Amino acid sequence: MTPVTVVAFVDDLMDRSRLQGIEGIAFTRDPSRSAAADVVIVDLARHAAVIPEITRVAPDARIIAFGSHVDTDAFAAAARHGATLVLPRSRFLADPVGVVAGLIGG
């Protein structure tokens, strides 16, 4: 399988620890670092505003956005601005490796 470049806009240390199983994941706060990414993960609670910039610098990247299941406005905005997949935090963090693999067909 071809290596996949995954960039994550996730600050919370507990959430980051759950993402460590994603091989080669890079954490950032700079949208320009997502330019070569195949998959970009965005925590909507802290980084929802970067999604339009990510879609501009990485138009082919698949964006996984996650957040509180009750924040339906953030979910709708993420989808409207180009997120490929928008999930409740609990569902995404239960199996982030599986979600990424499912999105890229691996």
For the structure shown, list the relevant keywords.
five-stranded parallel sheet; 106 residues; single chain; alpha/beta; globular; 5 strands
How would you explain this protein's 3D organization?
The structure is a single chain. This protein has 106 residues and is an alpha/beta fold. It contains 6 helices and 5 strands; from the N terminus they run βαββααβαβαα. It has helices at residues 13-19, 44-47, 51-57, 72-80, 89-94, 96-104; strands spanning 6-9, 26-27, 39-43, 62-67, 85-88. The protein has a 5-stranded parallel beta sheet, sandwiched between helices. The longest helix has 9 residues, at 72-80. It is globular, with a radius of gyration of 12 Å. 33% of the residues are buried.
Strand order, main sheet: write it out: 2-1-3-4-5
Rg computed from alpha carbons, rounded to a whole number of angstroms: 12 Å
Using DSSP, what is the number of strands? 5
Oligomeric status: single chain
What does the largest sheet look like?
Answer: 5 strands, parallel
Overall pLDDT metric: 94
SSE run: EHEEHHEHEHH
Low-confidence regions = none
Shape: globular
Number of helices: 6
Residues in helix, %: 25-40%
Span from first to last CA? 8 Å
Topology record:
Elements: E1 6-9, H1 13-19, E2 26-27, E3 39-43, H2 44-47, H3 51-57, E4 62-67, H4 72-80, E5 85-88, H5 89-94, H6 96-104
Concise description?
Helix 4 (72-80) links the parallel strand 4 and strand 5. The protein starts with 5 loop residues before the first strand and ends with a helix. The chain is built from six helices and five strands, in the order βαββααβαβαα.
